[in-house]
């Protein structure tokens, strides 16, 4: 909800302009292709700081996020994600699994599956960034109640 910055091409990138993940060759750069799943391709990252680290890329077309998929596509993509996670867990036996679907830099639906180990270099923390969080935003109870009501109405439409 922040105002667009000058020169920000976010809207175009969100629509797919220059999207690296729409191009299988670019999507696979720095990664090893593991398999094509129902709606996605699973890649193993070459950087194995976190053994088994994979990325699952939705590959039917450009879509910025889950909200851009049909119900059937969403269900299939999430099933692919679960299947990939089971495979990673089976092969690497991590202590925990992180799922990251950010899309802040590349707004094309993809999920990072990051196996975590009690002896990994950032155990207990996200693998990216150590910047302190911004200060908490105080929100009135009335505003919070309005947001809860809005979410409830939206859930009824789904
Ligand atoms: Zn794309």
Could you characterize the architecture of this molecule?
This protein has helices spanning 10-15, 24-27, 71-92, 141-157; strands spanning 31-36, 40-45, 54-58, 96-100, 110-116. It has a five-stranded antiparallel beta sheet with strand order 1-2-3-5-4, covered by helices on one side. A hairpin with a 3-residue loop joins strand 1 and strand 2. The radius of gyration is 18 Å and the shape is globular. Helices cover 31% and strands 18% of the residues. By secondary structure, the protein is α+β, with helices and mostly antiparallel strands. The protein has four helices and five strands, in the order H-H-E-E-E-H-E-E-H. Zinc ion binds at residues 16, 19, 21-22, 62, 108.
């Amino acid at each position: 909800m922040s105002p667009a910055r000058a020169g920000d091409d976010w809207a175009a990138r969100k629509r797919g302009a220059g999207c690296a993940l729409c191009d299988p060759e670019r999507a696979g750069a720095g990664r090893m292709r593991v398999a094509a799943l129902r709606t996605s391709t699973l890649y193993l990252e070459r950087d194995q700081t976190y053994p088994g680290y994979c990325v699952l890329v939705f590959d039917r077309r450009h879509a910025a996020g889950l909200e851009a998929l049909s119900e059937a596509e969403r269900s299939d993509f999430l099933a692919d994600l679960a299947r990939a996670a089971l495979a990673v867990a089976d092969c690497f036996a991590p202590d925990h699994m992180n799922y990251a679907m950010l899309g802040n830099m590349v707004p094309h639906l993809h999920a990072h599956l990051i196996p975590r180990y009690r002896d990994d270099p950032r155990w207990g923390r996200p693998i990216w960034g150590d910047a302190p969080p911004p200060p908490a935003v105080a929100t009135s109870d009335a505003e919070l109640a309005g947001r809860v009501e809005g979410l409830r109405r939206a859930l009824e439409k789904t």
